[in-house]
């Protein structure tokens, strides 16, 4: 079982003008929610650890989890409202976000919510956290306690997935990344996030720093320029897969879901294992994950692919 920790919310896209306003297209989302769904679509046992509202939007989020086959036993139901993320995209399909949810249900995760993990139907093999719920109170302290509890007992994965609209203080994001580097078996971040955290710092310099801090496997995604990976003793690069771009919403989540699924399929979903990958394995992992991300970029919103779609894309590459 992989436990994905963090927010579930509604991504709201602008639709066509109406006589009295504007049509809106609301879709289930949130980076950890997307990742959990993506893992389920890749045939991996997965649970979401987070809080979902009991309002009508929360009911839709809950039903989507159940329909996709995500284990809901670690989900806390909250009377707080569902957070809304208003999503706009530019001409290149790159999203911008405006979040409405400072008192949303996704922040209602006290320490005692961790007890639900003990009741999951399968043993915990990996733990993923990231995005803004790893930064904001009170969720951040709960998730840090979980990492401390599970370090060396299962694979720990982290994706900062910066959302400065929620928390504009970059020092808090840097502090969390610095805290995670010696505790994580896998850190995945985008080159955009790295530029926001460390302006002007070359990727290779950050990679050396991450490995020196103890990070087992570092992956940096670079959008249309592909992705780079460093394990303890190897390095690899892979180009982006060609795609008729719709938008990039959910591409990073798709990449991370595929990465964790690849590790599971290759008996590397355990503490310490990703750091031992050689260059050939790293390249195969990146090729699989970039294919998944490309499929998501060809769809509107965070519509992550299923396993057979990735296989078909790789056969056609």
Q: Can you tell me about this structure?
A:
The structure is a single chain. With 317 residues, the protein is an alpha/beta fold. It has one domain: UDP-N-acetylmuramoyl-L-alanine:D-glutamate ligase (3-Layer(aba) Sandwich), CATH 3.40.1190.20. It is built from nine helices and 13 strands. The strands form two sheets. It has a nine-stranded mixed sheet with strand order 5-4-1-8-9-10-11-12-13, sandwiched between helices. It has a four-stranded mixed sheet with strand order 3-2-6-7. Strand 8 (126-130), helix 3 (139-150) and strand 9 (155-159) form a beta-alpha-beta unit. Helix 1 packs across helix 7. The longest helix is centred in the C-terminal third of the chain and has 19 residues, at 279-297. It is globular. The two termini are 31 Å apart.
